[in-house]
Each structure stands twice: as C-alpha cells, then as structure tokens.
Give the backbone structure.
Amino acid sequence: MSKKTFTKQDIDILEMLAEYKWGDTFTCLKCGKQNEVIKSEYHSGRRCKCKTDESVPAHTIFDSNNLSIEKLYGILKYVDDNAKRDWKEQILTIRRHDSISPKDFAVAYERGEISKANFDRQIGEWAHDTKISITHTAKVFGVEENSIRLLFEKIDSRIEDSGSDNLNIRIMDFFASHDWEYNLGLLMFPMRKDDEWNRGVLKKDGKTYQVRPQPFIRNEDERKGLAWRLVEVEE
Ligand SMILES: [Zn+2]
C-alpha cells in the first residue's frame, strides 16, 4: 500500500476524503485516544502515538478494494449523479405509467398484493435498465464486476433497510434520497472490522449505537459541514 504511486488527483481526493473521515478529530481505533498524532506513512493518513497507522481507505467503504482511490471515488460520484438523475426520472415515469413507485411497490409486495413472480420481474427490469447496476457500472469504468460488487456490498452494510431484496435497487434508493455530503459522511465513517455492524447499527456491551450526522464548522471560512459520529440510541 505505501509503495503504491499516487497521482496528484489521487492525493487531492485522499485529502478531501480524510476531511470527511476524521474532520478535526482522529480517534485511534486501537487505543481509543484522540488526536495523539505523529507523521503517517500513508498519504493523508493518521498515525497514533501508539504506532497504529491508519490510511484514508481503511475501515471505510473503500477498504480492501484493489481499485485506485481515484477510480473508486469516480465510481461513487457516477453512482450518486446517476441515481439522482436517472433514478428519479425513472420513478416519475413509473409513477405515470403504473401509479406506483419502487418503494410503494415493495410495500405492496410485502402486503401480498403483488405476486413473487411479478415482483421479481419488475424489480429485475428496473435494476437492469438503470445506469448504475453492478454490470453497467463495471462496463463504464472498464473494471471487474467483483470490485463494484465489493464496493456496493460495503455501502449496503451501512445504509438503512429500504425493503428491497435487490442490491442495485437498495444502492440507487440510498443515493437518490440523500445528498452527497451526507453520503460521504456516512460512507467514510471508520467502522472497526471486529465490531458487528448491521446497516449502520452497532451493538456492543448491551448498548446500541448508530452513525449519525453532527453539525460542525469545517475550515476557517466557517463552511458548515457534517461530521458523522457514533451516538448511543434507544433500541
Ligand atoms: Zn492509538
């Protein structure tokens, strides 16, 4: 990882993502101390005085993916743009023709108003027709489907349950209904591998935690951003 060569653009992206990941506060995932930082071996990384060195992609949705950070970020932006544009248009079209949105369609299916065969056929059509299915995205970026699938699965483990059993649909639904700042905040939040996460919810020592946005002032020009932090929630 540290031997890898980075382009200027890679470094810009890493710096920006590091801002979303840690903001002003770096909490060491190993010893739990805050802001005890020394120089990291990684570009824009954070290294704790306890010697734990954390790269920007580590413990985020970009972890363990063999694609470059520049490409992964490009894919994410592509998915976000297209989900917001095409997906919303499709929902409108579907509403016009069938007077039902995919979400309402999923609810109707759960109520038993639509047969399993009809449900699968319709969902399959919607997922296949969109520009951000795993297959289509892999083609656009000239990468293996497995890399996109890994990215989508990592995103999926962090997002709320939209009620669909189709991964493409869940991803589209998520990107279509949240703005980019929110998406990056949630997707860059460092989640420890050994903790048991389920759709952005962590259960530990009998308590339930969720990753939630907290307003904070980033930069000197007081641009308001959102820091995603772990907060205890009622069960
Ligand atoms: Zn530490």
In short: The first strand starts at residue 37 and ends at 38. The chain has two domains: 1-56, 69-183.
